[in-house]
Write a structure and sequence with these properties.
The complex is a heterodimer of chains A (368) and B (560).
Chain A lengths: L1 E10 L8 E10 L4 E5 L6 H9 L6 E6 L2 E5 L4 E2 L8 E3 L11 H11 L5 H14 L15 H13 L5 E5 L7 H18 L2 E6 L2 H7 L2 E6 L2 E6 L1 H6 L4 H7 L3 E7 L8 E6 L4 E5 L9 E6 L14 E12 L4 E7 L2 E7 L10 E6 L5 E3 L6
Helix pairs in contact in A: 2-3, 2-4, 3-4
Chain B lengths: L2 H29 E3 L5 E4 L2 H8 L3 H32 L6 H12 L2 H12 L4 H10 L10 H25 L3 H9 L4 H29 L3 H7 L7 H10 L5 H31 L19 H27 L9 H5 L4 H8 L1 H33 L5 H8 L7 H14 L8 H26 L2 H9 L4 H30 L2 H6 L7 H10 L3 H31 L5
Antiparallel strand pairs in B: 1-2
The chains are: A alpha+beta (368), B mainly alpha (560).
Chain lengths: 368, 560
């Protein structure tokens, strides 16, 4: 059980007012969880990971792993990184070029409590087999492809059977097709050995595909902590909706004070009234965005659609499975996913409809 | 105890014991009044006051500035032009420039100076030719400020070539090609883009050469002293060589030099930081694309050959000629009849030359080993901003403020007073070398560590390795190319060092550069040349090893 409480590590920035780092982050992970810290660069996700690893000293907060306190500001406890018993895969893989594959992987066992030679060999071979590199032990580490280096780094991180596995954007240096393969592979492996895993990425599709639990981070704060489905279906803030992907966001204000979960009207800047569901309690006159996904907008509106709009088709792009249409409605542009065989004329007048259930009325997240 | 805290403390203590006493002693020596027996009697400002009133003081300061400025300009012009031609154009015969640089790396400066004194001197080929055609007089007077600047300038041009070469090699050709595709001619591109981009590096290098020239000893001693042209270093040397040595005045002069150098170094630090911001290479796997000089490439080739002749061939021929003659005489057909191997036989048979060579190699190797061992810790801690890293860095590079001769005076003052029986032995030279060359070892390790991806160490840390294990198992093996290159570099420059050794060597503890100096003073030009040639051959082998190693170390960027 990894438990992080009110973790704060702020970097002062001399050049502009924006400071990086992480503020007041809290989460706790049941054993075996695949947990992802997701966010744009500079959001504090890597800082959080490095604090858990012990490579960075937090300003305040508390980190415990299976009842062992790794860091506690109040009690002035700080377990140094090499005594934490964790495994970590670095973004650059950090494969030591002066060692063979075997020696790279054996390193955690050699610097740990002394272990018979045969046991080391057995465990390294097992780790190599786990990552699908059986028989590669004698290779010099410099003669590996990117994908192989990644596997070696992973084998090195799990060889001493750590209680916690930390992964710092491990797929970002691989090319696209390899990345897809490794994504599945990594998830399979993690489920097989059942190790609690903290994964850092800026790629939302990676996060959705692999995780049990995702924390979306924004300016050092956790904007939403939820399973992938919840994050995708009901983003908590405009930031999360924007970051998770292709949602249309229409700016407006809440007409009335609305309790969490209720459906209520929103007035857009051009005066149009739309109905949406409010995931959080919202006061009247609060600025909100209506978030609606392209695939939830119908080009054949009927009475089931609480929201109806009319606009002009400006651009289409053929994406294979769908035809993406951009439709101008007043000053705003909406993206709509149409069936691929749909072939409209540019400039055509289009009628759109979507349900109030599918339209979320989101507030901006609190800013640092 | 936690090695993370104790290691910097131990390293810092060792550095402080080495680095601080010479500086403190120098200041102390310049402020203390002594009686006839040399015992301190009180504090005084009289030594500094005597600088103001001493007849030659102002002049030697002015001479130092003129000499340094002149030789800096000359070496930048020659070395810079050459570096650009070699690194950024398709001029032919470019390997000749590298060859002369490698060989001059290994040659003691004093040998160059001796060769040039012969070439430009009264019996040298130039004046000899002038005399035989005109019947009288000299074309060049080498023992003049002009001669000093000329020789010093050519002495430094290989270093300028080496350092600016690195700058030009690292220049991003995209920037030049962007100018060319915008319609700029080659000349306009060089003037408005290449030179502007290299300017911070050139200025920093100019200041660096200027600082080294202020502290130069060989040329001022051999060329200047006979003509009674004194600079700061030779003034210090003279006041140390009078009987009894005027330690107070020498220390006062030395303190003045240290202050000048420290101020210049401060500006150098700012300039070179500025130069780094202009570095235009960001990615890896990058190749500079040379300019096509067209028909001009043969003119450029001629320049390279001319430089090769001046920097390497002529001095070498002069030394060979001197070595093969019993008495120094001009190049002539008649001289061919008096060729003899007697000087070489004398050098090989006399046991003192082998002792001397052995002493030199031993002290240089010892100093290089100690420095690299100490620098491995210091450089790593400093480059990784470990606890106390900045303080260690400044301590390790403190000796940059000492010109060689000044450090000689300071170390002498320290170890005359320390109750250790090392004065007059090789140990004191070893200690002085460690102090003097520590900053170079430091730079090699520092740059080496910066090339290591930090995650290589963090990965070891996460895997459970402690502080010293990371240093031993990860950092040291990965740094070994940089460490070997640094070792060879220090070994080479320690073997060239004259200024320190000339004050600290005693008859029982001679080193090669000092022996060459003594031979010169005694007028034994033939044996000097013979010994010098053999020595140069030996050092060239080391210099070649150094170049191969640097090239290897430079291209391997670990962890990417």
């Amino acid at each position: 059980m990894l438990s992080v409480t009110a973790l704060t590590r702020v970097f002062a920035n001399r050049y502009d007012a924006v400071a990086g780092g992480v503020r007041e982050a809290s989460f706790s992970l049941p054993p075996g969880t695949f947990f992802t810290l997701l966010g744009p660069s500079g959001c504090g996700k890597t800082t959080t990971l490095r604090c858990i690893a012990g490579l960075e000293r937090p300003d305040s907060g508390r980190i415990t792993l299976d009842r062992r306190t790794l860091f506690d500001n109040a009690a002035n406890t700080l377990v140094p990184v090499h005594q934490r018993g964790i495994g970590m895969v670095f973004q650059s893989y950090a494969i030591w070029p002066h060692m063979t594959v075997f020696e790279n992987i054996a390193f955690p066992l050699r610097v740990g409590p002394s272990m018979p030679r045969e046991d080391i060999a057995r465990r390294v071979d097992k780790a190599l087999a786990t990552v699908g590199l059986a028989g590669y032990g004698n290779r010099p580490a410099t003669r590996l492809s990117g994908g192989q280096q990644q596997r070696v780094a992973l084998a090195r991180a799990i060889v001493h059977e750590p209680k916690l596995l930390l992964l710092d954007e491990p797929l970002s240096n691989l090319d696209a097709s390899l990345r897809e393969d490794m994504r599945t592979e990594l998830r399979r492996l993690q489920q097989e050995i059942g190790v609690t895993t903290v994964y850092v990425t800026h790629d939302q599709s990676e996060a959705l595909a692999m995780s049990d639990l995702i924390a979306v981070m924004d300016h050092g704060r956790i904007a939403q902590l939820a399973p992938p489905r919840t994050i995708y279906a009901t983003p908590a803030t405009t930031f999360v909706a924007r970051f998770i992907g292709a949602a249309n966001l229409l700016a407006g204000t809440a007409l009335a004070t609305t309790p969490a979960g209720a459906i209520a009207p929103v007035r857009l800047t051009d005066g149009t009234i739309l109905h949406g569901r409010f995931p959080t309690a919202t006061n009247a006159k609060t600025p909100v965005h209506i978030a609606i996904r392209p695939e939830n907008i119908s080009l054949t509106p009927d009475t089931s659609h609480a929201n109806r709009l009319t606009g002009t088709l400006t651009t289409t792009s053929y994406l294979g499975a769908t035809l993406s249409c951009e439709i101008a409605i007043g000053a705003e542009t909406l993206r709509v996913a149409a069936p691929p065989d749909f072939a409209p004329e540019r400039g055509a007048i289009m009628n759109l409809g979507f349900s109030a259930e599918a339209a979320l009325a989101l507030q901006e997240g609190e800013q640092a | 105890m936690d090695a993370r805290r104790t290691t910097p403390l131990i390293v810092g203590a060792v550095l402080a014991i080495l680095m601080l006493p010479p500086l403190l002693m120098l200041v102390h020596g310049s402020l203390v009044d002594t009686n006839a027996a040399g015992a301190a009697t009180g504090w005084t400002l009289q030594h500094f006051r005597s600088l103001l009133t001493a007849p030659g003081a102002a002049e030697s300061l002015r001479n130092s500035l003129v000499f340094s400025a002149g030789s800096t300009l000359l070496s930048l012009l020659v070395g810079g032009l050459l570096a650009w031609l070699v690194e950024r154009t398709n001029a032919p015969l470019r390997f000749l420039a590298t060859l002369s640089t490698i060989i001059s790396m290994g040659t003691p400066y004093i040998l160059h100076v001796v060769a040039w004194l012969f070439l430009l001197g009264p019996v040298g080929p130039i004046n000899d030719f002038w005399k035989s055609s005109r019947g009288t007089g000299k074309l060049v007077e080498v023992q003049s400020m002009g001669g000093m600047i000329l020789i010093e300038g050519f002495l430094w041009s290989p270093l300028v070539f080496l350092l600016l070469g690195a700058t030009f090699r690292a220049a991003n050709a995209d920037m030049e090609e962007a100018a060319r595709t915008s319609g700029a001619s080659i000349l306009a591109t060089i003037w408005r883009i290449s030179l502007r981009l290299a300017m911070p590096a050139i200025l920093a290098l100019a200041l660096f050469v200027f600082i080294r020239a202020i502290g130069a000893f060989e040329v001022p001693a051999l060329v200047g002293i006979p003509a009674r042209i004194y600079v700061l270093t030779t003034t210090v040397f003279e006041s140390m060589k009078t009987m009894p040595p005027n330690l107070g005045q020498a220390s006062a002069f030395a303190v003045v030099m240290v202050v000048i150098v420290a101020v210049l170094l401060h500006f150098y630090g700012r300039l070179s930081a500025n130069a780094e911001r202009f570095a235009s290479v960001t990615g890896k796997g990058f190749r500079p694309r040379p300019f096509d000089l067209g028909a001009w490439r043969w003119a450029a080739g001629a320049l390279i050959v001319l430089n090769f002749i001046i920097v390497l061939l002529l001095p070498l021929v002069a030394l060979i000629w001197l070595a093969l003659q019993r008495f120094p005489r001009a190049f002539s057909m008649a001289g061919l009849k008096t060729l003899t191997l007697a000087n070489f036989t004398a050098v090989i048979e006399a046991p003192n030359y082998t002792d001397l060579a052995f002493n030199s190699l031993l002290v240089a190797a010892g100093a290089a080993t100690l420095i690299m061992a100490l620098a491995a810790f210091t450089g790593w801690i400093a480059a990784r901003n470990g606890p106390g890293g900045r303080a260690l860095d400044q301590l390790a590079t403190l000796s940059l403020v000492f010109p060689g001769i000044v450090l000689g005076v300071a170390v002498m003052e320290v170890y005359l007073r320390v109750p250790l029986p090392i004065y007059g032995t090789l140990w004191i030279i070893l200690i002085a070398y460690v102090i003097r060359f520590m900053p170079f070892g430091m730079r090699y390790v520092y740059a080496g560590v910066l090339q290591l991806h930090r995650e290589l160490e963090e990965a070891a840390s996460v895997a459970g390795a402690g502080y010293l294990t990371i240093l031993r198992r990860i950092v040291a093996p990965l740094l070994s190319p940089a460490m070997v290159a640094g070792w060879l570099f220090i070994f080479l420059i320690a073997n060239k060092e004259l200024a320190i050794a000339v004050l600290l060597a005693s008859p029982g503890s001679q080193v090669a550069a000092v022996a060459v100096f003594d031979l010169w003073v005694n007028g034994q030009g033939g044996e000097l040349a013979a010994f010098g040639l053999l020595w140069t051959v030996l050092m060239t082998v080391v210099a070649v090893a150094f170049f191969l190693q640097s090239r290897r170390g430079g291209t391997d960027i670990w962890g990417n």
